Fold this protein.
Amino acid sequence: MVQINLPKNSKVEKGEYYRDKTGSKNIRKVNIYRWDPSSGKNPRIDTYEVDMDNCPSKVLDLLNKIKNEIDSSIAYRRSCAHGVCGSCAMNMDGKNGLACTKPHAEIKGDINIYPLPHLKVQKDLIGDLNTLYKQYQSIEPWLKNSKKDDNKENLQSIEDRSKLDGLYECIMCACCSTACPSYWWNGDKYLGPAVLLQAYRWIIDSRDEERKERLKKVADELKLYRCHTIMNCTNACPKGLNPAKAIAEIKKMLATSI
Amino acid sequence: MEDKNPLSPHIQIYNWHISSLISISHRITGIVNITIITLICFWVALLFLGNTNYELIQKFFETFFGKFIIIGTIWSFSFQILSEIRHLFWDLGLGFELKTSNITGLLVIFGSFVLTILIFTLGGNLVL
C-alpha cells in the first residue's frame, strides 16, 4: 500500500545541537537521524558541528570522527571501509550509497545522514534488513547442478562467464532496494532490485541446471512485475551495477520463452 | 516490538532523479489521458444533441481556462507517447545505461514540449 506519510511514532523531531569545541574555522554542519529504542521517544535529528580541517575525505570518516570525538552514543554499521562489505549503506544527501566510498566534499551545504529509507529502524542509522534477507533466501542463491564428479572443474566458456559480469559484483548492501519506491510500497511481496539482480545472476549462469524453475518461480505479478523501471536502483548502486537492466532481462526471458 | 520501531523516512528525504520524475509523470499523464478520452466521448455525444451544445463548448474552449485544458491535454498525450516509446525500447533491453537513460529522459521532457507546440500551432491545419 502506498503510504506517503510516516506513521505517528516515526515523525522526525528536532534533536540536540552539538556546538564545535575545537575553535576551527572550517566547520560543517552534519545532521544525523537518531533513534534510541530505550527512550520511548520519536526519532530526532541531531546536528553536529564538525571541524573539517582534521577529517579524512569520506562520509564514514566523518561519522567515525563524530563517534570518537563528539558523541559516542551514535550507532551505525561499518566494517571494511573499502566499499566491499556493504555494511555502511545509508542515505546521504538524499541518495543511498556507501558511507565509506562517498566523499563528503561532493555534498553541498549541510550534510544530511539518514538510515536506508523505509526500513524498521533498530537504532540510529541501523535499519532492519531481515525481510530482504528472507527474500534473498527465497530465490535459493546457490548453484544447482546434478554433476557428481567432484574432481573435475566445472568449466564455463569465456562468453558464458562474461554474462555474470555486472552481476557477481553485487555486495547486497541494499542501497538499490531501499531506493525503490515500488519496494517501499510493496516491500513485503515485491522482491526488489537487489534480490532480482541476484535471481538473474543464477538464471543466467550456464552451469546452473534449474533455469526454467527459477524463471517460473520469479514470474509473479508482485514478485517481479512491480518493477516499473523507475531506475532509482541503478542511480543508487554504489558499485555501478544495473539492477534495472537485470530485471528487464528477466522480463525479456519470460516474454520470449514458451 | 514491531510497532515500537519507527519507519525510516523515505519519499520525504529521497532525491528526485530524471528517471523517477518521468516515471511518476508517466503514471499521472496515463490517468489524465484516460479521463480526457472519456470526456471527449461525452463531448462528441453532446454534439449529436444539437447546435446549442456545440456553441457552448466552442465558447468554453475560447476562454483562458479552455485553452489551458487544450494545451494541457496535448502535452499530456505528447508526454505519454514519447515516454511510452522509451518504455518500448526498455522492453527490448535497450537504453538502460545511466547516461543513455538520462539522455532519453531529457529527450522525452523537451520532446513533449516541442510536440505540444507543433500540434497546437499546426495540428489545426491537418484537421481542416
In short: The beta strands of chain A are 13-18, 27-34, 44-51, 89-92, 95-98, 111-114, 121-123, 126-127. The longest strand of chain A covers residues 27-34.
